[in-house]
Specification:
The chain is α/β, with parallel strands linked by helices and 276 residues long. The chain is built from six helices and 15 strands. The protein starts with a strand and ends in a 5-residue tail after the last helix.
């Protein structure tokens, strides 16, 4: 089923009334939301919904939860990646696990009072963040045991070249989530609103200049709403020689449901499953 700016894909063999052992993955960005249902017992992607260009993705998600029968399944586990302006990556040697509240003073936006943390042993830092209070209410009421991650964590889980210099770019229609790693270290992460191609070009040049990126040798991994022949890809090609689509590599998961879709569209949504 398709409607304007949204798509629902369902395995014809999937019966929500009889579903057991399923996991729910939710991704909320600044202008979209999506979910995926994974049948862990069968090792299969059973359903996927995506809605782009949402003026209010949180309220849209709340309405979807109430009306979508697929979201009423008694899930084995639920994980959600939620866009937030309030996130800070603290190097391991500076983390005070006894007092995460001290980091809240660096947050720029009034959101939930509850602080979340995620330790990344690979990159040697801990993410400390909070999320919009509305998002927290929606998720906690619908899925009380939901594990919450900030928007950058699934993108890092997709990085298959930790030892090299890599730029990871994940696109929605109107936003760009970007992460830059160098020799196993997180150097930069940020989200940008990109209302047109000129803005996208500007942010790329700003990153290259401010971060002193060697654009000729670095690998750029792209995912989300971008195509090989579109204008965004052409702009990237002006500055970078090595551009690859960041596709989900899940030998443990049957992804036949996506066989008619560009396989990089939902990489970060599926990567929520890799967050621990």
């Amino acid at each position: 089923m398709n409607s304007k700016n949204s798509i629902l894909l369902v395995d014809p063999e999937f019966d929500p009334a009889a579903a057991i052992g399923c996991s729910l993955l939710v991704k909320v960005t600044a202008d979209s939301y999506s979910y995926a249902i994974i049948d862990k017992s069968g090792g299969k992607l059973s359903a996927l919904y995506d809605h782009q260009e949402c003026p209010d993705p949180l309220n849209e998600l709340a309405g979807r939860i109430k009306s979508d029968n697929y979201l009423s399944i008694p899930f084995q586990d639920v994980k959600a990646s939620v866009y937030t302006q309030n996130t800070i990556a603290v190097p391991a040697e500076f983390v005070n696990e006894q007092d995460f509240n001290q980091y809240a003073k660096f947050f720029s936006t009034t959101q939930s009072d509850k602080l979340y943390s995620h330790k990344s042993d690979i990159y040697g830092f801990t993410s400390i963040f909070n999320i919009d209070s509305t998002a927290e209410k929606i998720l906690s009421e619908a899925f009380p045991d939901c594990k919450i991650f900030d928007h950058s964590i699934p993108l890092l889980c997709l990085n298959k070249q930790q030892e090299h210099s890599t730029i990871l770019l994940d696109f929605t229609v109107g936003f760009l989530n970007t992460t830059y790693t160098l020799a196993g270290n997180l150097i930069f992460q940020q989200s940008f609103e990109i209302s047109n191609n000129d803005e996208f070009n500007y942010y790329l040049l700003l990153m290259i200049k401010q971060l002193h990126i060697d654009s000729a040798s670095i690998t750029v991994m792209v995912s989300g709403i971008i195509h090989n022949q579109d204008r965004r890809f052409e702009i990237l090609s002006k500055y970078f020689n090595k551009i690859e689509f960041n596709v989900p590599h899940r030998e443990d998961l049957n992804l036949d449901l996506l066989e008619d879709m560009p396989n990089h569209y939902y990489s970060t949504l599926l990567a929520v499953d890799l967050c621990v």
